[in-house]
Amino acid sequence: MTIAITGATGQLGRLTIAALKSRLPANQIADQIVALARSPEKAGDLGVTVRAFDYAQPETLAPALSGVKKLLLISGNEIGSRTAQHRAVIAAAKAAGVGEIVYTSLLHADRSPLSLAGEHVETEAMLAASGIPHTILRNGWYAENYTGAIPSALEHGALIGAAGNGRISGAARADYAEAAARVLTGTDHAGRTYELAADDAWTLGDLAAEISAQTGRDIPYRNLSVADYAAALVGAGLPQDLSEAIAGWDADAAQGALFDDGRALSRLIGRPTTPLADVVRAAL
Fold first, then answer.
1. Given pLDDT bands bounded at 50, 70 and 90, which one contains residue 28?
2. pLDDT band with cut points at 50, 70 and 90 for residue 31
3. Are 176 and 7 in contact (CB under 8 A)?
4. Is residue 145 predicted with pLDDT exceeding 90?
5. What is its EC number (predicted)?
6. Within 10 A of 95 (CB to CB), how many other CB atoms are there?
7. CA of 145: how far to CAs of 77, 88, 173, in Å?
8. Same domain (yes/no): 135, 147
9. In the chain, what percentage of residues exceed pLDDT 90?
10. What is the pLDDT confidence band of residue 62, given thresholds at 50, 70 and 90?
């Protein structure tokens, strides 16, 4: 059975391929895993078959999916272009005879207030209309989305955000990758939608306290208004549109948009999700 992964050189793609390799016999890895990448030269270290896969050239997508039985469609990173890109991939998968698609969606996409949700809902609808058996992995926030701010927090002596006391069920990216690998190598997941999140939720105040404990420094959490947080991100060099989006996601998190206590992720991977302390330790 050949399994292909889009966005294979991205952070989630690489971790998913590593998880797949750990679940397959060594003599089957090269033949059974296909890394699909816009820049194939960046995938040479993955140790699997590599094929060029560029959303901007939709006519090339179906040939790249030849012989693929299961496809992991990792949602694209070009916000605003993802619906069209995903539509092209689904059409190519159908033309190539792909047997099953696994899609990385967003936690509670059908009711999420996050601005990201719309393209995920549209993609889920396209999958339903395609007739291709599929599984939806509604991934919660990556804990690394926030631990990525640790260097700045240490430099400036505070962790900033606009999420208030909102509880965030953010799991390690590797946990989501393990879930994808288990679904891709399993046999009874088609037709299911999984709401995936960490076992234990935390606030940005909790994150600041963990950073403080592990560094021996006093790193408080400073809650800003959405406008002030967006301005701080612009000041740090992020584009205006992205800064406003990130600040808006924090505002949604303050209202519970990133919280889930269903523990479907730990059940799927067969172990507790990675504790926040471990994610912080890895980031440090």
1. confident
2. confident
3. no
4. yes
5. 1.6.5.2
6. 13
7. 14, 28, 9
8. no
9. 91
10. very high
> Do 93 and 43 share a domain, yes or no?
yes
| Residue 189 in domain | no
Residue pair 99/141 in contact (Cβ under 8 Å)? The answer is: no
- Of 35, 18, 36, 32, which Cα lies nearest the Cα of 69? 32
- 215: helix, strand or coil: helix
Question: For residue 81, what is the domain's CATH number?
Answer: 3.40.50.720
pLDDT, position 206: 98
Q: For residue 203, what are the contacts with CB-CB under 8 A and spacing of at least 6?
A: 163, 164, 165, 166, 167, 168, 221
Which helix (H) or strand (E) segment holds residue 5: the answer is strand 3-5
First to last CA, the chain: 39
In the chain, % helix, strand, coil (3-state, to 5) comes to 50, 15, 35
- The CA distance from 113 to 137, in Å, is 18
Which structural domain range is residue 58 located in? 3-139
The answer on pLDDT for 225 being more than 90 is: yes
Tokens of 157: 């002596």
Which CATH number does the domain housing residue 239 bear?
3.90.25.10
Say whether both 255 and 225 belong to one domain. yes
pLDDT of 25 strictly over 90: no
**Interior/surface letters 228-263, b for 16+ CB within 10 angstroms, e for the rest:** ebbbbbbeeeeeeeebbbbbbbbbbbbeebbbbeeb
* 118 and 8 within one domain: yes
pTM of the model: 0.95
- Rounded mean pLDDT of 232-249? 94
Asked whether residue 180 is domain-assigned, the answer is: no
